[in-house]
Specification:
By secondary structure, the chain is an alpha/beta fold. The protein has helices at residues 15-25, 41-45, 73-77, 102-106, 144-161, 177-183, 197-212, 228-240, 254-260, 265-268, 272-287, and strands at residues 2-8, 29-33, 48-59, 62-63, 83-86, 89-92, 112-113, 116-127, 130-137, 166-173, 188-193, 217-221, 244-245. It folds into 2 domains: 2-56 and 120-287, P-loop containing nucleotide triphosphate hydrolases (Rossmann fold, 3-Layer(aba) Sandwich), CATH 3.40.50; 61-114, Alpha-Beta Plaits (2-Layer Sandwich). The chain contains 11 helices and 13 strands. It binds iron/sulfur cluster (2 copies).
Length: 288
């Protein structure tokens, strides 16, 4: 099985449109949406959920009202202002609780429970292009790196069971913990970028990561014709950083129009962007 992670230095570069198109072009692919903070691959692949699993991470404090004496210790000790008191009744705001456990430790009558915190859900679904693992992080929930690892691991297991030829992963943007969780040990990475100064800056930061983890890296400049000079500069910088520049994708309103229709651009039409993405896919297949 060949594993390809599609990432970008920041959001909104067209990474998910490329991933959705690859899902349509690949034979026997398994997909994973590891961009759990802003998941949107499901908008293109319209998954039909087959299995739902809960994602727990860390702990949250919960006061048992019947056992609380109203001493106010927890409110005094909480450094995150998560304890709310109204008319002598104490409760904890789950969105503000950081799960440090201090109030649990020091509550005189031990009236605070400390269960694991439900931070989101992850799903195994069917799509028109194959199976997909994806997730929904709860509001204000953190620790997305852990959820990314779960999504990726589960997708790899399902892909192995189905003997999928490809595991296509829509990775998170940036260079933080979720990105590291999505690319560590990956077969190859495609970085989708844009021809802007910030695009170049973000790309070079991502390439530091992929070089550190010794992952074969490819880049594709989306909307390259908006600034051909910057495109050349980015491709040269990428080559210097050890990455291979592949097909460029021209600006094409079809990408947005396809998203509105819930389709990948290669399913939507045979316009310039669709043609470029097909060429990009062929070149990747050749390299991998
Ligand atoms: S420390 Fe315990 S007993 Fe005191 S107000 Fe908080 S929950 Fe109630
Ligand atoms: S666990 Fe920590 S953050 Fe949460 S309410 Fe208690 S003291 Fe505040």
């Amino acid at each position: 099985m060949k594993e390809l992670v599609i990432i970008s230095g920041k959001g909104g570069t067209g990474k998910t449109s490329v991933t959705g198109s690859f899902a349509a072009l690949a034979n026997n692919a398994m997909m994973a949406d590891c961009d759990v903070d802003a998941a949107d691959l499901h908008l293109l692949l319209n998954p039909e959920i087959q299995e739902t699993h809960e994602f727990y991470s860390g702990h949250e404090a919960v006061i048992r009202p019947d056992d609380c004496t109203g001493c106010g210790q927890c409110e005094e000790l909480c450094r995150f202002d998560a304890v709310i008191s109204e008319n002598g009744i104490f409760r904890i705001d789950p969105a503000a609780c950081e799960g440090c456990g201090v109030c649990v430790q020091f509550c005189p009558p031990k009236a605070i429970d400390f269960p694991e915190a439900l931070c989101g859900k992850w799903f195994i679904s069917k799509t028109r292009h194959g199976r997909m693992v994806h997730a929904r992080l709860g509001i204000a929930a953190e620790n997305s790196g852990k959820l990314v690892s779960i999504v990726r691991k589960q997708a790899a297991q399902v892909a192995a069971a189905l003997q999928a030829e490809w595991l296509l992963i829509d990775g998170p943007p940036g260079t933080g913990c979720p990105v590291i969780a999505s690319i560590t040990g990956a077969g190859a990475v495609l970085i989708v970028t844009e021809p802007t100064l910030s695009g170049e800056h973000d790309l070079l930061r991502v390439l530091q990561l992929t070089r550190h983890f010794e992952i074969p890296s490819f880049i594709s400049v989306n909307k390259w014709d908006i600034n051909p000079g910057m495109t050349e500069r980015i491709e040269a910088a990428a080559a210097e950083a050890g990455a291979t520049a592949l097909e460029r994708i021209p600006y094409d309103a079809s990408i947005t129009n396809a998203q509105i229709q819930g389709l990948s651009v290669v399913e939507y039409n045979d316009g310039p962007a669709a043609t470029a993405i097909k060429n990009l896919w062929e070149k990747l297949c050749h390299h991998l």
